[in-house]
Amino acid sequence: MEKLEMIREYSKLLKLNYLKTNVDKILETAAVKDMSYQDMLLSILKGEISLKDKRAQEKRLKDAGFPVIKKIENFDFNFQKSITKKQVNRLLEMDWIDRMHNLIFLGPPGVGKTHLAISIGYKAVEDGYKVSFVSMDKLMHFLKTKEISRISKGKVNKILSSNLVIIDELGYLPITREEANLFFQLITALHEQASLIITSNKGFEEWAELMGDAALTTAILDRIAYRCELFNTSGKSFRLEHRESIF
Ligand code: ADP
Ligand code: MG
Questions:
Q1: Domain 72-241 in CATH: superfamily?
Q2: Which of 62, 182, 225, 242 has its CA 20 to 30 A from that of 155?
Q3: What is the pLDDT of residues 82-119, one digit of tens each?
Q4: What is the rounded CA–CA span in Å between residue 215 and residue 218?
Q5: Which parts of the sequence belong to the AAA+ ATPase domain (predicted)?
Q6: Is the distance from CB of 67 to CB of 133 less than 8 angstroms?
Q7: How many angstroms from the chain centroid is the CA of residue 229?
Q8: What is the pLDDT of residues 42-59, one digit of tens each?
Q9: Which protein residue has the closest C-alpha to ligand 1 atom 19?
Q10: Within 10 A of 242 (CB to CB), how many other CB atoms are there?
């Protein structure tokens, strides 16, 4: 076997993907720049590390399960004045995730709750955190079927091993008492293990009605609110204001 081919073969065996793909370029650059042996080895190792980081980030982004990607750069703070850019920038520093604080965005439809939740989650992925995004109704489905479905079990395990769990749209669909119980168990399991972002169109006082059990709701709220930042997003629906018309 030719030496170059052997390098590629061994790189593959050792999963050195950067070297495998770039060996020609690395050797050429080293020759052109008259690199020292040390510098050449360093550049290979750096290339390997940054490729691994990139792959890991791509995997975290896929695992996060965002329905769409929303970025904070595209959020119009003049339209949504209940939260300031300064506050969001503070949140984007992400230290609240290390301290396992929770964020709650309450408000009517279309005011940007999901946009904010995804943008913050996206930045968390970029910063190396494990994130899971799930709508409340999907979450209920996964929790109810985790014993009989491998997919659901996998999703629940992923949620339980996340640093940040985003639960979107709590309150849109009614919750049975069994579901409220499962939700309570999940919140208990995540308590002081992970941060939560919850978006809801219902105020806290309506949660009890939604879950049909005041004591359980109090216990859930108690855990969530223990370390929590609450944002009451109000205003008009961005969707309705920026509706695209055919005419
Ligand atoms: P909610 O979750 O509060 O119902 P969304 O976050 O889903 O609302 O927002 C609805 C749509 O409007 C999304 O496409 C979102 O990107 C956009 N949107 C909402 N608020 C803003 C805003 N302040 N700036 C830019 N886009 C916004
Ligand atoms: Mg939403």
A1: P-loop containing nucleotide triphosphate hydrolases (3.40.50.300)
A2: 225
A3: 999 999 999 999 999 999 999 999 999 999 999 999 99
A4: 5
A5: 99-232
A6: yes
A7: 18
A8: 999 999 999 999 999 999
A9: 112
A10: 11
Q: Which ligand is nearest to the CA of 231?
A: 1
Identity at 127, one-letter amino acid code:
D
What average pLDDT does the segment 173-181 reach? 91
Q: Given the CA of residue 107, which atom of ligand 1 is nearest to it?
A: 3
Q: Is residue 66 a contact partner of residue 122, using CB atoms and an 8 Å limit? A: yes
For the entire predicted model, the pTM comes to 0.92
Query: pLDDT grade, residue 236 (50/70/90)?
Result: confident
Among candidate residues 124, 25, 24, the one with its CA nearest the CA of residue 71: 124
pLDDT at 109 (0 to 100) = 93
Check if 112 has its Cβ closer than 6 Å to any atom of ligand 1.
yes
Query: Is the separation of the CB atoms in 125 and 64 below 8 Å?
Result: yes
Residue spans in the chain of domains classed CATH 3.40.50.300: 72-241
CA-nearest of 163, 164, 143, 161 to 152 is 143
| Residue bearing the CA closest to ligand 1, atom 16 | 115
